[in-house]
Write a structure and sequence with these properties.
383 residues, five-stranded mixed β-sheet
């Protein structure tokens, strides 16, 4: 028969919870265990402490954790905001080390100094912007030079040219952009014909709407709006593709495998733009003229035959040449900016998104600036 004897071992004494007592004017004694479980009970007492100089004796404190240390640090910060102070006495070395460690781990508030508002600060900001712009233009110049150097290399070594990649990018950049470019050109022609007919009808010069449509679309709007659409589609896709490869360190792996990233990534993409952008511009011109002819027929009664005759007789070939001369330059701008932005992507998704949006804005802005420079240049030449 087994007899179970009662356990005569002394029960382990439960640690005393934290308690605070006033021992004098502004002096208090904190004892027990100051941890996360005891904070709900003692925290209201700590928050009620006020005075010019609060002193707390921690010699009776048995144990403290990070939550308790944070409560003391928070009490000190609150008293300092009120112009008072907190002094701790009788702190054990390990408790003091824990309190200091928690204080050092707290995030430091970022203090932003107000920028001075004077003439020198304005010149300083302007100078920094100009330097950043010049540095950016220098980077684009270097990227363009790298592309031209690799293009000459593949011309001299045609076996190393990646024809499959070129066809793929021509499909992505050109063929898949046909619907939006055709629709854009058609609607631009419709709008020009409608607005032109409203204004020219007041002077009995409805027939000149053909010249308005032809010159506007063939010389400026056709290729410009096509380049803007391609910049929005292609610059972002180039930046996202190259930036994603850079984030996943695939470009570093290509260099390790003796594959030139410029030859494999930049040349097919920029060359595809050089090929398809003039074709897309031609498509935009054609659909724009069709849309303008339809609206002129509907609004002004100008038949398609009369529209075509007026177009061929009074529209100079110079307008067509001016429009197509811009296409290769716009293609280079879009491709170089997109590839450059992709190489600037850092190691996180935030950088990828920032560079993608920046590439689109910069590409569109540079295309418009280039178009304005072309307009001034051809005006000086009298073309």
């Amino acid at each position: 028969m087994v007899q179970i004897l009662p356990d005569t071992a002394p029960a382990s004494r439960a640690p005393a919870r934290a308690r605070i007592e006033a021992v004098g004017a502004g002096a208090h004694a904190l004892s027990g265990v100051l941890d996360l479980r005891s904070l709900p009970a003692i925290l209201p007492q700590l928050e009620a402490l006020e005075g010019r100089d609060v002193q707390i004796d921690l010699s009776g404190l048995e144990k403290i954790d990070t939550a308790g240390a944070y409560a003391l640090i928070r009490l000190r910060a609150r008293l300092q905001e009120q112009g008072a102070g907190l002094s701790l006495s009788g702190v054990q070395p390990d408790h003091q080390a824990l309190i200091e460690r928690v204080a050092q781990s707290l995030p430091k508030p970022e203090t932003e100094t107000a920028a001075p508002r004077n003439l020198m600060a304005l010149f300083d900001t302007l100078g920094r912007k100009v330097v950043d712009l010049l540095r950016f233009l220098g980077d684009l110049h270097a990227m363009l030079g790298l592309f031209l150097a690799r293009l000459v290399y593949v011309i001299r070594h045609p076996t190393e040219f990646r024809l499959t990649a070129l066809i793929h990018h021509c499909d992505q950049v050109g063929l898949k952009a046909v619907p939006i470019v055709a629709l854009m050109g058609f609607l631009i022609g419709v709008v020009l014909a409608f607005q032109g007919s409203v204004q020219l009808r007041q002077f009995g010069a409805e027939i000149f709407v053909v010249d308005l449509i032809a010159i506007s679309i063939l010389r400026e709007l056709g290729i410009l709006l096509t380049a803007i659409i391609v910049a929005g589609r292609t610059a972002s896709s180039y930046t996202a593709a190259i930036g994603s490869m850079k984030m996943r360190e695939e470009i570093d792996a290509m260099r390790t495998l003796a594959i030139d990233p410029a030859l494999a990534l930049f040349v097919p993409r920029i060359l595809a733009l050089l090929i398809v952008l003039p074709i897309l511009g031609m498509l935009a011109n054609l659909t724009g003229l069709i849309g303008g002819a339809m609206m002129a027929w509907i609004e002004l009664g100008i038949s398609p035959g009369m529209f075509m005759a007026r177009l061929l007789d009074d529209t100079s070939l110079d307008h067509v040449i001016v429009g197509f001369v811009k296409a290769p330059v716009f293609a280079l701008i879009i491709g170089v900016i997109g590839c450059h932005a992709g190489m600037q992507v850092g190691g996180n998704a935030e950088s990828l998104g920032a560079q993608t949006s920046s590439a689109v804005v910069r590409a569109i802005f540079m295309v418009i600036v280039a178009d304005a420079l072309f307009s001034v240049f051809f005006a000086l030449l009298g073309i």
